[in-house]
Sequence to fold (356 residues):
Amino acid sequence: MSEVEVVLEGVSKRFTTRPGETAPAALQAIDLTVTRGELMVVVGPSGCGKSTTLRIVAGLEEPDGGTVTIAGRSMDGVPPQDRDVAMVFQGYALYPQMTAREILEFPLKMRGVERAARTRAVDEAAALLRIERLLDRRPGEMSGGERQRVAMGRAIVRKPRVFLFDEPLSNLDASLRGDIRLEIGQLVRRLGATALYVTHDHVEAMTLADRIAVMRAGKLLQVATPREIYERPATSFVGAFLGTPRMNLIPARLDGREVVAGPFRLPARGEKIPAQLEVGVRPEHVTIGELGEPGEILAVEPLGPETHVVVRVGDVELRAQSHGFDTHRRGDAVHVAIDPDRAMVFDAEGDGARVA
Ligand code: ATP
Fold:
């Protein structure tokens, strides 16, 4: 059975701004359980409370309410250095005058680990991260990616129970991000460590996570595997946040036993469907061809392995995705169909909960 490692129960936080001013809650009753060895990615737009959640687990921030438990132990009043966690964040500041070896050794020195054991731990971490040849260099003599690897090395030498990553890739260029993303995933899994990984990047979330926790405005909306989040998003926001090109959201309404979304009609499934709806259709479930409703191609974006096509159908604009190169051209008259079995129906009001 999977062992529970990090538990947040009813964690809330409100920052005090100026006297007399009440800031909105940064976190509202967050409940989250991370099991041992799991890589949990916390994702959401800027300002939704991801970093605050991580900093509360690290002990860098006190919650106003609720509890954090790590390995069965309440973290109430436990300072960061006694929590058995290591944090890696964006633009990690490495001491400029130290070599990589000294940087990696530092946390062990602070703990009074003797020299031979320190050397062994540093060599082991350097081998894992493939940074052996950097050990004698200072941060000023390294690339951004190399510095990020050293920062990770500094976190792993201590063999913490829990890794906390806060946007560790955001300062790297796009191609390096992909490589280091892969390395972080492999490293965390090789170490069998538990990790909480914060990002606003949905690709990082989908590719790295065992489970994804989606946040918005201080609330946790859904915690599930990447596939479940993608195929069965709890709300229209979750559906639109994960996936590129973005899910199409079409304003819709209930008409008897049918859902009417622009020119499309779908059978209404399920009970108690509200009157005002939104239909969500992923671009790969929009087909352009001979069947369906008449439309016009507005734009064609070939990417190589796939093509994104923007098409107008009635008064609705949809994004479609097809394999390889698409022969359609701007201005073409076409027919457009959506896959009724894959279309999702959301409440247009409240939190935009999925109803079918
Ligand atoms: P980003 O992706 O932009 O880093 P985030 O999801 O990590 O965003 P947080 O940094 O957790 O968001 O911030 C959540 C909310 O709390 C925001 O509204 C932010 O302005 C506020 N906040 C965070 N830290 C403080 C602070 N020290 N004092 C006041 N308000 C704060």
